[in-house]
């Protein structure tokens, strides 16, 4: 495979954690990546809410990015010289979880089909113990790009990237992984993303006239701790009296799919007064969301960008869209802005990641917009607080 030669153009200022496509035959491919039409202002956001607090607002509008030509994709990624591109996907969770993993698989399938490439080869439900074998098995099936869906199965990457150097290895290692010569990484900043989540949830609690909420996770892993603490920080920036309890629902490590435990935890939390829940879950996401909605709770999902279009009436979502990230990463790779051996950290901005509200009042949406605006202004106090949250969460390794 021809390696990319241009240096990474720019990394984002946030460095606290190391961290698509209608085609016209073989001509230009329209990349269906959705990005925001306007980045948050760098000026200090207004805190004045509109007078009409009953008006419903939609999530930020999006637009498509610049097209990628098929020839560019083949030139960049065709490892075996067969004139096409085959994508491999390694997912730590189920490919049909209606969440992060499925969004990555769906992207790979749609991207391949619409560019007349071979169907992607997908291996899902990979646990840390079998990750080395699963990645090796995928690499031996003629893939040109191997997309590793999460940092929990990234441990074998130093070995497999050396063993299969012709493959372009890409990891959406949200919590960050060591930089390797044969690995291109994309990360995000969990603390900043979850600060917006807390503000959105605080706005909903305020409208409910409630103070109590619950965070349903797996097993108190460091990136969960970062997410939880930052959510509480955002929540209490709306009202210091607001509370959120963390409840582990899975077995260590990385069990985000235990529906029985998660639904039982939600029922218990509601009995103890919680009126809002954040399902930071994988395969257990939909059962919890449906139960909470049926019980009249405000429900937030850790999910792809289409949270508000789903059958379950989610109150909002915290967007982690593996497909959206991967689509943008391919554009960066083709442009030479992300290459093997480097790391790109996605910004926290509406339409890409962070909180989204579904059918929110104008006042709640304004509070969320202000949170994104404060991040975009690089407010020193906010960044210091979020940096401390990240540092504490990862201090133990």
Structure write-up:
The chain is α/β, with parallel strands linked by helices and 397 residues long. It folds into 2 domains: 28-53 and 62-189 and 323-345, 3-Layer(aba) Sandwich (Rossmann fold); 190-320 and 354-394, Response regulator (Rossmann fold, 3-Layer(aba) Sandwich). The chain is 36% helix and 17% strand. It has 11 helices and 18 strands. Strands 7-6-8-9-10-16 form a 6-stranded parallel sheet, with helices on both faces. Strands 12-11-13-14-15-17 form a 6-stranded mixed sheet, with helices on both faces. A two-stranded antiparallel ribbon has the order 1-5. The protein starts with 27 loop residues before the first strand and ends with a helix. Mean pLDDT is 82; it is low at 1-65.
The secondary structure category is alpha/beta
Query: Rough shape?
Result: globular
Count of the domains: 2
- What percent of residues adopt helix (DSSP H or I)? 25-40%
Q: Could you report the average pLDDT, rounded to the nearest whole number?
A: 82
The largest sheet is: 6 strands, parallel
CATH class term of the largest domain: Alpha Beta
Give the number of helices. Answer: 11
CATH architecture of the largest domain: 3-Layer(aba) Sandwich
The CATH topology of the largest domain, please? Answer: Rossmann fold
Query: How do the strands of the widest beta sheet line up side by side?
Result: 7-6-8-9-10-16
Question: Regions with pLDDT < 50 over 5+ consecutive residues?
Answer: 1-65
Range of strand content: 15-25%
Could you tell me how far the N terminus lies from the C terminus, measured between alpha carbons in angstroms?
35 Å
Provide the gyration radius in Å: 21 Å
CATH superfamily of the largest domain: Response regulator
């Amino acid at each position: 495979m021809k390696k990319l030669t241009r240096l990474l153009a720019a990394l984002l200022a946030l460095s606290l954690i190391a961290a698509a496509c209608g085609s016209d035959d073989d001509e230009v491919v329209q990349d269906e990546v959705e990005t925001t039409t306007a980045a948050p202002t760098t000026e200090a956001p207004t805190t004045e809410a509109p007078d009409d607090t009953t008006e419903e607002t939609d999530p930020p509008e999006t637009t498509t990015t610049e097209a990628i030509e098929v020839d560019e994709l083949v030139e960049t990624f065709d490892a075996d010289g067969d004139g096409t591109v085959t994508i491999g996907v390694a997912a730590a969770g189920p490919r049909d979880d209606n969440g992060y993993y499925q969004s990555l698989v769906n992207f790979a399938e749609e991207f391949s089909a619409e560019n007349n490439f071979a169907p992607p080869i997908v291996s899902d439900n990979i646990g840390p113990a079998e990750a080395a074998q699963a990645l090796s098995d995928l690499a031996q099936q003629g893939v040109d790009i191997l997309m590793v869906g999460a940092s929990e199965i990234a441990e074998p990457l130093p070995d497999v990237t050396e063993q299969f150097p012709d493959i372009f290895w890409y990891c959406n290692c949200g919590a960050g992984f060591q930089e390797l010569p044969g690995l291109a990484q994309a990360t995000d900043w969990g603390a900043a993303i979850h600060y917006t989540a807390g503000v959105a949830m605080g706005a909903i609690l305020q409208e409910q006239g409630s103070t109590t909420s619950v965070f349903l996770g797996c097993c108190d892993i460091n990136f969960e701790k970062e997410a939880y603490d930052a959510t509480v920080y955002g929540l209490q920036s709306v009202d210091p009296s607001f509370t959120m309890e963390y409840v582990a629902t899975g077995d260590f490590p990385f069990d985000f799919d235990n529906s029985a435990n998660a639904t039982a935890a939600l029922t218990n939390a509601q009995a103890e007064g919680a009126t809002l829940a954040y399902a930071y879950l994988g395969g257990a996401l939909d059962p919890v969301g449906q139960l909470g909605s049926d019980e009249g709770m405000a429900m937030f999902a850790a999910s792809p960008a289409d949270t508000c279009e789903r059958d379950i009436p989610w109150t909002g979502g915290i967007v982690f869209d593996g497909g959206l990230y991967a689509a943008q990463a391919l554009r960066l790779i083709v442009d030479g802005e992300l290459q093997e051996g480097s790391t790109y950290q996605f910004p926290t901005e509406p339409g890409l990641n962070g909180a989204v509200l579904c059918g929110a009042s104008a006042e709640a949406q304004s509070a969320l917009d202000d949170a994104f605006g404060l991040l975009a202004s690089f407010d020193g106090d906010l960044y210091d607080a979020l940096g401390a949250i990240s540092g504490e969460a990862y201090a133990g390794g």
